[in-house]
Structure formats: C-alpha cells, structure tokens
Design a protein that fits this description.
single chain, alpha+beta, 2 domains, four-stranded antiparallel sheet, four-stranded mixed sheet, 5 helices
C-alpha cells in the first residue's frame, strides 16, 4: 500500500524504518493559543459572538499551520531525511544520542561549525551523526529528536541493509 508524504509522492510509507514529526512543544502551542483572546478583543466592536469566533478560528489556524510545517525526521530505505535535507546512509558514520545536559551541550557550545543542523526548541533529545562523504564539506548532522535511541537503531538497520545491498 502506498501513501504519499509531504516529502515524497513516490516513496511507499511502509518502507519507513523511523518517522517523527518535530512538532512544537505544548508550551509553544499554548503560547500560540494566546492569540485567540487578542484577536477577539480587536473584533469586539463588531460583535461579541463574531469576535470570539474569529479569535478561536485564528488560534486554531495558527496551531494547525505550526504543526503542518513542522519538519520530519525519517529513516527510509537507504536515506536519512531531516526536514528538506537528505543523505544516503552509506555516507553516515557513528551516530550518538544525547539528552539532558549532554543534549544541551550538543546543540549549543558543542555544535560543529562545519556541521548541518535541524534543531527545534522544546525537544530535549539530539542525535549527532558523522558524515563520512569525502566530497561533502559538512562533517556531521545534528538532529533534534524525542527518541534518540530509536533514530540510532533505525540508522544502524538502514546502514546494514545498504551494506548488504551493495555487497550483492
């Protein structure tokens, strides 16, 4: 069965080893919901019922847009996708997951200046993956994730499958 995704219309969904949408945290979504009373106050001179409806509609629309445009991290087939960027898993080296203080350091002062990043606030976990492609100036990928262990396991499975496929 084929399902289309936002990133690819031709890739079967069932080949995905791992998929995560990096939606904003509940704190950020709640902050966006504060727009409702502000918009409602602006529209009060028109009509109270209309102003409440407009405020609620604007808040729901804003939250829906924030969730819809959130980037996706996916390991599928031979490929790691993080947002719009993608790389063949054959070019990836060791992946290391971090949480807590290590995670804050990895996405802060520990960032590789020659690396590529997909970092989202409110997501504690991060995976740092070495890029072994000698023709690529990017030396590593740093990706926010809620489940670093699952991303690392999916990468390892995909790398093993790619190595077996290349050996044939």
């Amino acid at each position: 069965m084929h399902q289309s995704t936002a990133s690819s219309e031709t890739r079967p969904r069932d080949l995905a080893v791992y998929r995560e949408r990096l939606t904003p945290s509940l704190k950020i979504l709640a902050g966006a919901a504060i727009v409702a009373p502000m918009v409602a106050l602006v529209a009060v001179p028109i009509d109270q019922t209309v102003s409440l409806s407009i405020g609620l509609a604007v808040a729901v629309l804003l939250i829906a847009v924030m969730v819809a445009v959130a980037p996706v991290v996916e390991v599928s087939g031979r490929e790691l996708r993080a947002g719009r960027a993608h790389i063949d898993v054959a070019y990836l080296g060791e992946a290391v997951g971090h949480r807590g203080d290590e995670g804050r350091r990895a996405r802060g002062v520990g960032l590789d200046p020659r690396g590529w990043y997909l970092i989202r606030g409110g997501i504690e976990g991060v995976v740092v993956v070495e890029n072994t492609d000698p023709d690529d100036p990017v030396t590593s990928w740093t990706i926010s994730t809620r489940t670093p262990d699952r991303v690392i396991a999916a990468l390892r499975r995909a790398q093993r499958a790619a190595a077996e496929q290349d050996a044939r």
